[in-house]
Design brief:
Length: about 300
Amino acid sequence: MGARPNYHETSYDTGKENGSPPGYPGAPGPARGNVYYVPQQGAGVYPNAHGEVYVDSQQGNQAQPPVDPERPNNFGSSFDNAVIRRRFVRNVYSILMLQLLVTLGFICLFIFSPEVKRFVQHNSWFYYLSYAAFLVTYITLVCCPGVRRHHPTNIIVLAIFTLAMSYMTATISSFHDTKIVLMAIGICAAVCLVVSFSAAFCKFDMTKWGWILSLVLLVLLLFGFITLMFAYIPGLRSPWYHGIYSGLIALVFMGFLAYDTQLILGGRKYQTSPEEHISGALQLYLDVVYIFLGILGLSGFSSN
């Protein structure tokens, strides 16, 4: 028996006609209908209005299976797509919850254990090693669809990425007061829930404006480089730069969280392919982590 076809081999890719934003495959099209066969020999294959195929082997004329008059056109296709999308959303958020639990565990270990806190603060090379692992795994998952879609390679690479990001996030948290970190976690959780539910039920389509978010992020990165330069110039160093930058980071990634949420839930102009559950979890995880880091930096600035 041949290999099982993937999603794109059994569906039309309507997103390619409208154009998809970089990094997100096109929207899935209607799935193929059922296939009915008459147990006789001959030729003649005809699709009906629902995409179902019925074979009339004797006459070669078009023949239709019995049609339920109450069933609308494309009912089967719509139902199949809805089931696929629900399964995809469930997979994405299950992976996301595991990632966030791992990160939360790292943070709690680093802020509540004095020995661990002292170790990570005096061994910065572990942080830079984690940063290198983060870059390599992130670029691999984003730029290599073969790795991203191949099980279990995608799970292994995503696990390494999550561990590296968790170590860096927990290391940054260890330099802040424990109460500030816990407050930032609570605020981040509340903000992410509000943004996610708002994006899910809001009629405004954020997927059309991904290019604006990318442009704002680029400007923000340039602002970050400028503030980094100011930190080394006598007389120009100011804690206000860090506070403003942290607040802007949190705001921009709230926008990305709404954008990625709508891409994953579907039903908008653009939507993530059901094969991209690793990519979906990756983007949501980064959104949440950067929102947390932005809130943490802003909270630390306010407390000082």
